[in-house]
């Protein structure tokens, strides 16, 4: 028994750098989902396709001999374009948001297969991926360079989004999600704001896909199936921890923390012997529980003292 | 200033639900005119204001502001000229954003939005001064989420947002109907102060006859998608609530909401 616990513990500690790295990259995705789901109030399924798109574009450009770091902006642009397609289906053709996302995601599978040259995956073994390039450059094991690199990109993105959503343009996107009537009455073109917001959100998802590919060494057409659920899990776990009442950059960091915690829970569950194929069921239950928490709280806790905060 | 020329609005044309909400309505407003709009439920008052704001497209006719034709302009492109306060206090502000962010959004109503910081400290100071003039105690709560304010506070804030950059035209659609009588009076008083100080051209829909008589220099009464009565200047000043009720009775409109008002 004790040796079992010790085994699990060492397993956990050994995988910690990788777990954290994965947490940060899923955290990047979670910030993208936060933008569509929380800021724009659009449950956008495109991210499943755009995450894989980002990874695949980056992998194929690496194979073609591009500078690996240059593949990052190209992957982001590809993801943003996917987001724009969804936004156009929704705003111009008036297709419900959730269906628009599903359509784009569906179509992206074929596009991703084409980019891969009709194979289902591309390995970067033996090619100068970011993982190998950085490890060679700094001459330390890649698990540490991966950790540092993913942390820096994640932290940079938190800062960038914090700045962006504080500008006039970013505020207009927030107003569009919060109250479209009000936004239009202030002269905000709500269609354009949705397009910009979904472009940003899917560009970020593609960035996450690109990092997975570059840091783990392969891209796969199925690498992202169910991404939206993991993103949602991260967002809602983050909100539960940070209680949802704090400033914007803490909410964004909350999504990252949520993703890291989610990865940690999964790693522990796998170490405890949970079959990998149960992952999706466990995640879905986790998200359903987390999303229904406000309702559960309302029914179980005795009535709180009335009055509003800050009043 | 505002020219509404033979505007008709038909909802769901050529279906069993076809509804002629406005029938060839014409109205001209001069700079500084304050017109109160009354009429029974379904008379077309909101549709008239929505057509001017651009949220409803006119089926026929023309709308011009300061001589330029805006009939085909979408609502958000008219927002630089036309600002509005809705009946529902939730509709005019972004509840998840704080007071200063809402004010900053309204500050650039109808202007290009750039990557400039939304609320500068200079603007925050300016907002503080504007809010202290409202005497609602909001000047110390710039960072408070608007969703935490009362309906009356939200409506007062919306009114401030609608008028802080003087619009060419202010549209008020029963903007005090959802408030308790005391708060409603306060917001109406505020409306009067702002409109008279700014010589603000205004269209105000109300169900309250006394308010319709007390405020503004002109009054129109609508029924069945048409303007059926129009009074201005001295003629309007002489009108009484009884006169208006008689008009309603003469067209067979006696619904409770009017009699109670
Ligand atoms: N979007 C719409 N679709 C279909 N019919 C509509 C629509 N908007 C308004 N109508 C109809 O048009 C008519 C005029 O409505 P409107 O809202 O302008 O009346 P109102 O004078 O503002 O009434 P109230 O005093 O109840 O606010 C009503 O019969 C209404 O049912
Ligand atoms: Mg109405």
Strand order of the largest sheet of chain A: 1-2
| Cα-based radius of gyration of chain A, to the nearest Å | 20 Å
Described by its quaternary structure, the protein is heterodimer
**Low-confidence runs of at least 5 consecutive residues of chain A:** 304-311
Structure description:
The complex is a heterodimer of chains A (311) and B (261). Helix content of chain A is 76%, strand content 2%. Chain A is mainly α and 311 residues long. Chain A has one domain: ABC transporter involved in vitamin B12 uptake, BtuC (Orthogonal Bundle), CATH 1.10.3470. A two-stranded antiparallel ribbon of chain A has the order 1-2. In chain A, α1 (2-39) packs across α10 (227-242), α6 packs antiparallel against α11 (248-271) and α10 crosses α11 (248-271). Chain A is globular, with a radius of gyration of 20 Å. With 261 residues, chain B is an alpha/beta fold. Helices cover 35% and strands 23% of the residues of chain B. Chain B contains 10 helices and 10 strands. In chain B, the strands form 2 sheets. In chain B, strands 6-7-8-3-9-10 form a 6-stranded mixed sheet, sandwiched between helices. In chain B, α6 (181-198) links the parallel β7 (169-173) and β8 (202-205). In chain B, α3 (99-107) runs parallel beside α5. The chains are: A mainly alpha (311), B alpha/beta (261). The A-B interface holds A 164, 166-172, 174-175, 178-179, 181-190, 308-311 and B 53, 55, 75-77, 79-80, 83-84, 86, 90-97, 101, 104-106, 108-111, 113-118, 141, 144-145, 148, 161.
């Amino acid at each position: 028994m004790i040796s079992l616990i010790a085994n699990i513990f060492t397993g956990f500690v050994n995988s910690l750098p990788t777990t954290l790295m994965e947490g940060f990259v899923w955290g990047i995705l979670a910030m993208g989902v936060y933008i569509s789901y929380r800021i724009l109030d659009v449950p956008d399924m495109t991210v499943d396709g755009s995450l894989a798109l980002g990874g695949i574009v980056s992998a194929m450009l690496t194979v073609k001999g591009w500078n690996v770091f240059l593949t990052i902006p190209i992957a982001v642009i590809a993801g943003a374009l996917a987001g724009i397609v969804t936004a156009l289906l929704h705003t111009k053709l008036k297709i419900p948001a959730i269906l628009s996302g599903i359509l784009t995601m569906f179509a992206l599978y074929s596009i991703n297969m084409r980019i891969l040259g009709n194979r289902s995956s591309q390995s970067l073994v033996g090619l100068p991926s970011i993982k190998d390039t950085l490890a060679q450059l700094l001459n330390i094991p890649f698990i540490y360079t991966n950790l540092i690199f993913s942390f820096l990109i994640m932290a940079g993105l938190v800062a960038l989004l914090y700045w962006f959503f504080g500008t006039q343009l970013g505020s207009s996107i927030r107003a569009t999600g919060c109250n479209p009537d009000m936004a239009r009455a202030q002269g905000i073109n709500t269609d354009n704001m949705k397009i910009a917001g979904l472009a940003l959100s899917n560009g970020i998802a593609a960035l996450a896909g690109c990092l997975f590919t570059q840091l783990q060494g392969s891209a796969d057409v199925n690498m992202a199936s169910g991404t939206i659920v993991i993103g949602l899990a991260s967002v809602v776990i983050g909100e539960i921890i940070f209680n949802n009442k704090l400033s914007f950059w803490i909410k964004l960091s909350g999504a990252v923390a949520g993703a890291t915690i989610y990865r940690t829970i999964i790693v522990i569950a796998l170490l405890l012997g949970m079959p990998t194929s149960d992952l999706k069921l466990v995640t879905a239950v986790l998200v359903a529980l987390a999303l229904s928490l406000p309702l559960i709280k309302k029914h179980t806790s005795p009535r709180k003292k009335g009055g509003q905060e800050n009043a | 200033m505002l020219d509404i020329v033979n505007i008709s609005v038909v909802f769901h044309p050529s279906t069993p639900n076809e509804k002629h909400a406005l029938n060839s309505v014409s109205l001209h407003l001069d700079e500084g005119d304050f017109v109160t709009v009354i009429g029974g439920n379904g008379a077309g008052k909101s549709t008239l204001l929505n057509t001017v704001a651009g949220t409803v497209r006119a089926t026929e006719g023309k709308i011009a502001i300061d001589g330029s034709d805006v009939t085909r302009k979408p609502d958000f492109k008219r927002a630089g000229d036309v600002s509005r306060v809705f009946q529902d206090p939730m509709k005019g502000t972004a509840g998840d954003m704080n007071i200063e962010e809402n004010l900053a959004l309204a500050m650039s109503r109808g202007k290009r939005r750039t990557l400039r910081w939304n609320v500068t400290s200079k603007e925050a100071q300016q907002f503080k001064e504007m809010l202290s003039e409202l005497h609602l105690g909001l000047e110390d709560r710039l960072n408070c989420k608007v969703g935490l304010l009362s309906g009356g506070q939200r409506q007062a804030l919306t009114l401030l947002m609608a008028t802080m950059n003087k619009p060419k035209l202010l549209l008020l659609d029963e903007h005090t109907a959802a408030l308790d009588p005391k708060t409603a009076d306060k917001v109406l008083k505020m409306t009067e102060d702002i409109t008279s100080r700014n010589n603000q051209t205004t269209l105000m829909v109300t169900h309250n006859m006394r308010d319709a008589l007390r405020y503004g220099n002109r009054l129109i009464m609508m029924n069945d998608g048409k303007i059926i009565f129009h009074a201005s200047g001295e003629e309007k000043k002489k009108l009484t609530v009884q006169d208006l009720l008689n008009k309603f009775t003469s067209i067979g409109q006696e619904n409770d909401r009017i009699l109670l008002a």
